[in-house]
Give the backbone structure.
Amino acid sequence: MSVSHATPALEILGASKRYDKQLAVDGVSFSIEPGEVFGLLGPNGAGKSTLINLISGLTRLSGGRVLVFGHDNQSDFETTRRLTGVMPQEIVIDNFFTLEQSLRMHAGYYGYADDPVWRRTLVERLALEPYLKRKPLQLSGGTKRRHMLAKALIHKPRLLILDEPTAGVDVELRHNIWSFVREMRAMGTTVLLTTHYLEEAQEMCDRIAILAKGKIVALDRTSNLLRSIDDRKLLVRVSAPLMETLPALREIGAQVLEGGHLLSIPLSSDGLLGDLLVKLAALPTKIEEVESKSADLEEVFLSLTGARHV
Amino acid sequence: MSEYSRFRPFLTLLSKETQRFFSVASQTLLAPVVSASLYLLIFGVSLGSRISVIPEFQYVQFVIPGLILMGVINNAFANVSSSLFMSRYLGNIVDLLVTPLTSTQYIAAYTLAAMLRGLLVGLVTWLVSLCFATIPWAHPFQSLAILVLGSFVFSQFGILAAIFSKNFDTLSMFTNFLILPLIYLGGLFYPVSQLPSPWRELSGFNPLYYLIEGFRTAALGVGSVPFAVVIGVVGGLGAVLFASAVFIFTKGYRLRG
């Protein structure tokens, strides 16, 4: 199959999905370049899973188009689906077959013969070896998720879609999964993921789109999104409590916290840290600890969506 | 990866569906044969000697074609309806919906696996029936064609039942309130031609009558429904059901959001 490298891995052109009177996805457009790791974030009900279902073909588009490596996912779905691997959010199992049997079958569903070497690689990297002869009902939630990831990758897709891949997975397995996703990316696989763990998205994604009420409210490189909130602070812990009324504190814009023991001082992008430190040294108390704090993705997320919980 | 094959998804699904019913053979193959054996025991040994409906045949010989056909169509229906409905109910149909399988491939794979199970049950029912009586197989190819057609029609019906059923109750209603009455009223245990009016005329609206009586005509060489009529009526019904199944799968009704 010939696929031009100039062609985006995924192009979403005005995609929308309407359920009765409600627009779950409202004219969303963006594209993902080959080899990118792209994060889709948003509060519950923002339309992330619906959008992913529209891309994978699990849900029918009400409007717009989805192109996978230049192929329309409606008119040329056989091509787009074999180029795509999907790990859905909900755990789905077929308890008639062992893990090994289902992995073999999955290659066939995508039109490829079983590749024992690749299957073995997936089994080893996702630590599935001890469970190969078991049926899914005998497995823990984390193992079922790793099995689902193996199924999504069994045909070596060029676009990998992960919908909450680490939900309910313990810390060690989460690292295991992300480290394997990084390997896949190094092999040229494009990754589209959703996660509720914002620190994971911050660490993994080249670009992030934030979705709220079915629309994209922000889309940029992860570093740019973080910079978009000029929210760096200097946290200064002092030994003796300070009063908010001190002119020196007002001059540096400090907020007094913890009964006067902690100062939170905003750092503007052009602020000179040396001047600030001189002013701090003049305070009538001893400085015990200084810590600088940058905005994290959670703050960006909350400021853009107004959501309380992610 | 190996070379992509357009037919591999279909062959894989067919293999999976076949393995599925073989893996629970005691439910899918043995249980229907036990039921058929009980019917044969009752009508062959117990009551059969006291009933005569066709002059040149024993009653058990009259009943055997109907029991074979009942095994075929019941199991073809049960195989596809339970497998597809369970996939929808448990959500694992998602695993298939994201693959390159086309609507026709889905239907063909589910249908062929269901037909295979139905025909296997029919074959074993016939083998068991040899303990009680033999039938002459007056038109063996016509008999086989009718069994194949019957299993096809009820596979399509099973697909539609699985798609339209909202829960297990609805699914069992198709079997209990539609298929079983139509089979029993279609002349499984009695010749419809001997029914009084208007029941005889009303039976003409029951497609199972054409299937059962047609199969009996082909198997025994005696009956009132010629092969061409079976092909016309049951084949027409099969074509309508198949077209409906393809349309529904293509539209993704109750399958894709």
